[in-house]
Structures are given as structure tokens and as C-alpha cells.
């Protein structure tokens, strides 16, 4: 494939820098700077949840069926709060135990450390669970509830039943407001319901037989303690009875299950893990900037490529959010890709001094990786998406020499932040020596 003038592909990072991968260019030249004023967590190449200091890029590897992906991304997220306390310390008194106990021993957790704890049931014919009373801050909200679970007590413990139920419990009406039962051996959500039926159900396998499970639901009004996050142990196969019969432990006293990393966030999808002890903890937003591109970008003519993935189900985005752009360090000269919640869910916007032009795509698939390659010159613009040409404009007024000099997630002007997804790579090609057919072939190859 034709070599780019500038290419940044997620690779090595150190402190605030994520180094680009372009042969023959200095390692630090035009390296993206990624900033965040808080600690955070990411999934590392070994499939372990790893803590990162502030301003360390959240370079994530995805995981599927317990297998870690071959290449990483830089995850960008807006600031979010976690509305649970003691997210790992289930032996803390804030996590109350019914029909069982949390032992003193620790077990290997999804972070590779001895930070997981196991719950052992000691009753029959009653519900056995761990719960935390939720703060008033989660009432009248749409929330995502998640936790990591592992069946059984490990090599030195008792087996589990293979099933686990996660719920938001309504203490006023003495019922599970929302619940999902999971098969945590085969990775299947088996049963769900409650007064507020769950959405966006998650069951994702991590290494060492850990599963992260979760769901999106809504709560009604109430006070502190109106709702509980419940983690049920000793759960029987839902096929053996109707809800909540399968949560009665029958003769499964002594069954064990391990817990780690309980989170509740006001989002529609599971965020990267947020750690908390005795107070609510948030994770600050990430920012992404590449500057000093004058030596690599021929502003009047070029091909700009981005490879990104949006966070799941962006239906909370307004019409002017989630922008990644190539710009002049302002909003005066810009090539911007704008992602939003409603159709059309993607816009390509050109701003050249006082003039502007836009193209709208109706069906960009947020569930999958998005590859967009736009070629522009005087009197011509063409955009490729998913290997196909989706837009041509023959009246484009192009930029002045060397005016474009920055790639960022806030459109060059400190607004419209792209903070709801992942960036895999950005590339720029000076295509003045290429033929039209070569340029089209390059666009097709990049976006397939």
C-alpha cells in the first residue's frame, strides 16, 4: 500500500505521549498527547485490568471469549461518576451479607492480583446474596450496573452452581426492580425481567474464567437505600423453576462464587472499570491532540483517514458532539467528522475561512469499527466509508498552504469533544504525485 506522509497507529506510550509509527521520522515528532486529570483503568495485552496514573493514555486491548485482541486502541471517555463504594472490598460492612459470608482469603482477580473475594452460601431454601444500599444519587436515573464474577471458590474452594443473578432491588416494594441471571460457565444471559426490564445486557469473558456482566436499567424516585445492588449466590438453573424460585438455594449450601469490580454509572453501556473505596469516585475525561503537523500536511491537497469506534448506543449525544478533526488549531479551517445520536448519525464538515460545506451519512454503524477516508483538492472532495465512495463534491474551495496543523478530539476550538469512543489510527497522505485511480484504490483499501 502507498505509504502515508503521516501515520499514527496505537502503539507504544510513555507519560503523556502515544508514539506514532512512521518510518524515518523522529519518535517524538508529532506524537499524540493524551491528558486526563485522574487515575483510570484499562485492559492490558495480557487481558488484565490495569491501573494507569493520570495523563497516561488509556491504551486498551479488547477481549472476546477470553481471548485478547491482536491490536489496541486509545479509549476516550467523558467524565463519569461511579455510584458504588468499596468496589473490590466485599468484606466491608457496607456490603451486607444474607445467607452467606465473605471469607478472609483473597483470590486472583481480573487485575492479576489477590484482590477478589469469594462469597460462600451457608443457608438452604432462602435467598443468599451480597448487597449495597444505593445512594439517592442513583434514583430517577438511567444507570448501568456491572460486576466481575467467577464461578466457584477456585482450586482450594467449593464449586459453584454455574449461575449468577445480578439485580437492582426495590426495597419499598420488596421486589427486584431489574434482574438478569447469567450462565457464568458458558457465557450466556439466561433470564431477565423485573418491573423495569433490562437493556444492553453484557456478559463478556475475560482470562482465567472471569466474566464481566451487567445491564442498563432505570430507577424511580426515592431516598438513599430505596434501591440495592444485589449479587445473588447459590443460584439454581432458571430452567428448573420460575422466578424467583431458581434463586432459592434448595440444597446448595456451601456453594461459592467470586466477586470483583462492582460499578454503577449513569451511562447506557459499561465503562472502563472505576475503582472506589469509602467515597464515590469519578474518572475524568480524556483528551487527544497531535500538534506540529506542518512538515507532514500539504493543506490544499491530501487524503485524511481515521479509524475509530464509537462507544455503544450513542443515543445520549446531542447534534453537535463527538468530533475528531484535522484543523488549524482553531475552528476557522477544519476537516471534521461529527458523530451524533440521530439520523443522520455522521457528518463530515469542511470549514475554510468563512465558507463551509457538509456531507451527512445516514447509517454509520456504531457497533463496528468506522473507517473514513476523505480526499480533497481544489474543486473536488470524495469520501469513502466501508470500502465504498459515499460522497463526491466538485465545487470545493480548498485550504491555503500549510494551514492545517493539528489533529484533536475537540475540533480545534475546545468544544464538540470526541469523548465517547476509541481511536485506532489516523493517517494523512500527500497525494499530489498519485493518479486519480491510485487515490481511489487507496481510499478503498484503507476503509475495507
Describe the structure.
- The protein is an all-beta fold and 448 residues long.
- It has one helix and 33 strands.
- Strands 1, 7, 8, 24, 29, 30, 31 and 33 form an eight-stranded antiparallel β-sheet that branches. The protein has a seven-stranded antiparallel β-sheet with strand order 4-23-32-25-26-27-28, with no helix packed on it.
- β5 and β6 form a beta hairpin.
- It starts with 5 loop residues before the first strand and ends with a helix.
Q: Which range best describes the helical content: under 10%, 10-25%, 25-40%, 40-55%, 55-70% or over 70%? A: under 10%
Mean pLDDT over the full residue set: 88
List how many beta strands DSSP finds.
33
Note the beta-strand portion. Answer: over 45%
**Poorly predicted runs:** none
Rg over alpha carbons:
25 Å
Main sheet makeup:
8 strands, antiparallel
Structural class: mainly beta
Distance between the amino and carboxyl termini: 13 Å
User: What is the molecular shape?
Assistant: elongated
Number of H- or I-type helical stretches: 1
Topology record:
Layout: E1 6-9, E2 13-14, E3 17-18, E4 33-35, E5 40-43, E6 49-52, E7 59-64, E8 67-77, E9 80-82, E10 96-98, E11 100-107, E12 116-121, E13 128-133, E14 142-151, E15 163-170, E16 175-183, E17 188-193, E18 199-206, E19 210-218, E20 227-233, E21 256-265, E22 281-283, E23 287-290, E24 302-310, E25 323-327, E26 333-339, E27 346-352, E28 355-361, E29 370-377, E30 380-385, E31 388-393, E32 406-408, E33 420-429, H1 436-447
Antiparallel strand pairs: 1-33, 2-3, 4-23, 5-6, 7-8, 8-33, 9-22, 10-13, 11-12, 12-21, 13-20, 14-19, 14-21, 15-16, 15-20, 16-17, 18-19, 23-32, 24-29, 24-33, 25-26, 25-32, 26-27, 27-28, 29-30, 30-31
